[in-house]
C-alpha cells in the first residue's frame, strides 16, 4: 500500500483522468456530423490516432498514458503494474471519459450533438460478429502497446507515440464500419452515459477486455516471454515495486542519526 502514500502515484492517476478526458473530447468531437453526407472515416481515425499519439508523448512518462481500461487490464494480466494502481487507473479513465463527453456536450449546438458519436453496431452485423471484431481491434492495438513499451527492446526504431497512434487509427479505419471501433470501454461508456443509451453496450466492454487479455497473454508468454516466477508476479500485483512503478521511497532518517553521521 506504499503507492497511495507516494505523490507520483496520485500524479499518475490524475494523468490518466486528464488524458482520457482530452482523448474523448477530441475523438468524439471529430466524429460529430456538422454537414450533410456520410461521416469521413479517415478524419475520425486520424483524430483518435493523433490524440493518442499526443497523449503518449506528453504523459507517457507520468502514467504510461494508457487512456484505456482495456490496456490497463492487459498490463495487469501481464503483471506489469499492481492491482491497486490498475483499479485507480481504470476508475480515473472512466470518469475522465465521462468528463470529456460532458464538456463536449455542453459546447456543441443541440442540432449537432446527435448521439454524441455513440458506438453502434451496423444493422447487418450480429452481436457475436461485433464482439469478435472488437476483440481483434483491441488485440492488435494492445500488442502494439506492449511491444513499443517493452524496455527490453533497446534497439527499437521509430516513435513510440506514433506507433500507438497509427495502430489506433488502423483499428478505426477497419472497425468504424462494423462497430464504430470502440477498442476502449471508457470511450464507449462516455457518450452512452451522457445520452443514457446503453443498447448492446456490453459488447464494448467484453470485446476489448477479451482482446486485451489475449494480447497480454500472447505477448508476455508466447511472443516475448518474461522469465518471472509466480512469486515475483504476485509481488508486483501486490505493489512491491514492479516494472513501470517507482520503488517505495525510503523512510527519512531521524535527525539524531543525521547529526551523528556528520
UniProtKB/TrEMBL annotation:
GO terms for biological process: gap junction-mediated intercellular transport; homotypic cell-cell adhesion; lens development in camera-type eye; maintenance of lens transparency; visual perception. It holds the Pfam family MIP. Signal peptide: none annotated. One of its GO terms (cellular component) is apical plasma membrane. The chain crosses the membrane at residues 12-32, 39-59, 88-107, 127-148, 160-179, 202-223. Its main location: other. Residues 241-262 are annotated as: Disordered. Keywords: Cell junction, Cell membrane, Eye lens protein, Membrane, Transmembrane, Transmembrane helix, Transport. GO terms for molecular function: cell adhesion mediator activity; structural constituent of eye lens; water channel activity. It is found in: Cell junction; Cell membrane. It is a multi-pass membrane protein. It catalyses: H2O(in) = H2O(out). InterPro entries: Aquaporin-like, Aquaporin_transptr, MIP, MIP_CS. SUPFAM superfamilies: Aquaporin-like (SSF81338). Belongs to the MIP/aquaporin (TC 1.A.8) family. Aquaporins form homotetrameric transmembrane channels, with each monomer independently mediating water transport across the plasma membrane along its osmotic gradient. Specifically expressed in lens fiber cells, this aquaporin is crucial for maintaining lens water homeostasis and transparency. Beyond water permeability, it also acts as a cell-to-cell adhesion molecule, forming thin junctions between lens fiber cells that are essential for maintaining the ordered structure and transparency of the lens. PANTHER family: AQUAPORIN TRANSPORTER, LENS FIBER MAJOR INTRINSIC PROTEIN. This is Lens fiber major intrinsic protein. It comes from Gopherus evgoodei (Goodes thornscrub tortoise).
Amino acid at each position: 500500500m506504499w503507492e497511495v502514500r507516494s505523490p507520483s502515484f496520485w500524479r499518475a492517476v490524475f494523468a490518466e483522468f486528464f488524458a482520457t478526458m482530452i482523448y474523448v473530447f477530441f475523438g468524439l468531437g471529430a466524429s460529430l456530423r456538422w454537414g450533410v453526407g456520410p461521416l469521413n472515416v479517415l478524419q475520425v481515425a486520424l483524430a483518435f490516432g493523433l490524440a493518442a499519439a499526443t497523449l503518449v508523448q506528453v504523459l507517457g512518462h507520468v502514467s504510461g498514458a494508457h487512456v484505456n481500461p482495456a490496456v490497463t487490464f492487459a498490463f495487469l494480466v501481464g503483471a506489469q503494474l499492481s492491482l491497486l494502481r490498475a483499479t485507480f487507473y481504470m476508475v480515473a479513465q472512466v470518469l475522465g471519459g465521462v468528463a470529456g463527453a460532458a464538456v463536449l456536450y455542453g459546447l456543441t449546438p443541440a442540432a449537432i450533438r446527435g448521439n454524441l458519436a455513440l458506438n453502434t453496431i451496423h444493422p447487418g452485423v450480429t452481436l457475436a460478429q461485433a464482439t469478435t471484431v472488437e476483440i481483434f481491434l483491441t488485440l492488435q492495438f494492445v500488442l502494439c502497446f506492449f511491444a513499443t513499451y517493452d524496455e527490453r527492446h533497446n534497439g527499437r526504431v521509430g516513435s513510440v507515440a506514433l506507433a500507438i497512434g497509427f495502430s489506433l487509427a488502423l483499428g478505426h479505419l477497419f472497425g468504424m464500419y462494423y462497430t464504430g471501433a470502440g477498442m476502449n470501454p471508457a470511450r464507449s461508456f462516455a457518450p452512452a452515459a451522457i445520452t443514457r443509451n446503453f443498447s448492446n453496450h456490453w459488447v464494448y466492454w467484453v470485446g476489448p477486455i477479451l482482446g486485451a487479455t489475449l494480447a497480454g497473454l500472447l505477448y508476455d508468454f508466447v511472443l516475448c516471454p518474461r522469465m518471472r516466477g509466480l512469486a515475483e508476479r504476485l509481488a508486483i500485483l501486490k505493489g512491491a515495486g514492479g516494472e513501470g512503478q517507482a520503488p517505495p521511497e525510503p523512510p527519512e532518517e531521524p535527525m539524531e542519526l543525521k547529526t551523528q553521521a556528520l
